[in-house]
Amino acid sequence: MANGKIYRAACTIAITFSLLLSFSLMQAQLKPSSNIDLFDVATEGALLILGLSWLTMVLQARPDGNVTRLLIIGLLGYSLGCYMDLLDEFFINSSLPTWFSWLEKLPTPIGLLTLTLGLWLWREEQKTVNEQLRTREQFFRQHQLVDRVTKIYDCRAIRHQLDMHIKRDKQLGLVMFDIDNFSDINQQQGFKEGDILLTNIAQLLSSQLRSQDLVCRYAGDSFIVLLPNASNTFTQAMAKELKQAINQLNCQASCAEVHYQLQTEQQTIEANKLISQLNNKMKQIKLARPIAKAG
Amino acid sequence: MQGIAYAQDKCINSSLLVASLISLFEYRQLNIHQLLSGTGIFEQDLRHLNHKISPLQLGKLIDNALNLWPGNDLAFLLGQQWLPSQSGNLTNGLLCSANLTEMQALWQQYHWQSQPWLQGWRWQTTQQQHLILQLDIATAKQQQFFIELTLSSFVASYKRLANQTWQGHFSLPYAKPKHIDQYHKYLGDKLSFTQPLCVISYDLALNNVPFQMADKQGFKLAELQAQQQLKQAEFTIGLPAMIRRLLTKGQHHSLPDIAHALGLSPATLKRRLKPFSVSFQQLQDQANLHNAIYLLAVTGETNLQVAQQLKFADSNNFRRSFKRWTGQLPSQFRYWLNQT
Lengths: 295, 340
Description:
- The complex is a heterodimer of chains A (295) and B (340).
- Helix content of chain A is 63%, strand content 11%.
- With 295 residues, chain A is α+β, with helices and mostly antiparallel strands.
- Chain A folds into 2 domains: 2-132, no CATH class; 135-288, 2-Layer Sandwich (Alpha-Beta Plaits), CATH 3.30.70.
- In chain A, a hairpin with a 2-residue loop joins strand 3 and strand 4.
- With 340 residues, chain B is α/β, with parallel strands linked by helices.
- Chain B has 3 domains: 1-70, no CATH class; 75-235, no CATH class; 238-338, Homeodomain-like (Arc Repressor Mutant, subunit A).
- Chain B has 16 helices and 9 strands.
- Classes of the chains: A alpha+beta (295), B alpha/beta (340).
- Chain A binds chain B through residues 147-149, 154-155, 183, 186-187, 190-192, 195, 218-220, 222, 275-276, 279-280, 283, 286-287, 291, 293, and chain B through 24, 27-28, 70-71, 73, 76-77, 80-81, 84-85, 156, 159, 163-165, 179, 181-182, 184-186, 188-189, 212.
């Protein structure tokens, strides 16, 4: 889909640029090659290439919409201005027609203004998206940390967030969910079903959380939920509720909670330590749980 | 004489690890052509029964797989599915074992037909059983992958067969990796990194925990079949493991000795080792370290006794060498296996 858009844009740009070139060739006189300033050609050519590469990136990355259109129009205008600047290096100034100087001077400022407006609206749009993604990223965006299967963050992101909250908050809760006998699902129904289940759980958890909470995939079939400023009672209740919600996806989950409360001012704890406490607790729970025998 | 596999010998059954790897890539809709590129393996080959690949091909395949796989859980995912997805006499036997002791004895004897990248040893101290794992036909670069694969399949198999969570300790011969969470998830929290050997340690009591699918007849049959298969097999051990075995047993020490025992010239032996990215000297050091730790930590001998048994001029000489192998002193290993 994105490729189709890029292809269309490339065609339009190629046609426009070649038309402009042929009109100029008809109406104006070429400079003798010794008079062409190669340094100017190189710098203006580079600006044009940069402009076109920004355009490609925007076309590739952005979904269609008003903001995207403004950004594209802005970049098109800017690129046109750059192109005219480049062309003018090859022609004798006095022979150029009036439309040429208009096209050389106007598109760049108009393009940049449109681009600025687009960026302004993009800022508004991003704020809305940030709200939508709150329980998945909590205003911390680093796409390398996103798990490929479930599309939520992996554990590195929660370590980062946890360290931040430990410094800032007086108390917080951490809950780990671990799907019981998940390897049986992978084995009996295939990895595809297993992956679908993991994705569903990720979706479910991120939609059930409060807006200040964060969910991440810890490893394999384990998830961790971070509950900033949550009391012990609240953490327990939330864990219970989420566990029941997961049960509705036709799978059993074990859950372990850890609650952290700041005791004295200087005494803080490391994220790693909390996570290993959580791991330990999960291990105890798994050990205590009688493993149901399935044939 | 055992059939020794060199790097280009087709000795690895592709219906095992290779097939699991490819089906995992198919599930995740990753590019199979990229996975197989440069390996000389073709998708249609895999449909043939008994299709085999060489250590070199396996090495390239694992390299490709690690490069293409998004995330760092590939070995763990494969390990989870190891026992259920593998078929063969050994697997049948493992599934029918009465307990861990029986399972290990069987594995020790016949593992090479399904996991030729491993060489295993068993040590016992007063309270614990220790399984030492070393690489056979795999290159040192892929050590971490094969260890992750082996340990996670071990833990998953134990859970499946004994119907209880694994409780034991792992010593790992590399530094703590970045994806430590995967280790905690799949292997538990009893881990020590940067150790000289890869060791699985556990309480002797675990050896006798009854397995759910124990089947005496089935086990016997599988053992017989595995025996048959071993007799007919063209290859039964890889070159690195063979050399390590000869060195560890202690009758042969020098390169010419070993080369002679294998019917090769020293230069050929060196050349044949090169594709495994290990030198004779390294294997010799590994064998000596292995023996030294055994004597120190299992039989509890003094430095002088160890030095004598390993044919060092004196105990100072031994201490220096030991320091070079491990960066630590021999005395620090006296209680190494009893620390947990």
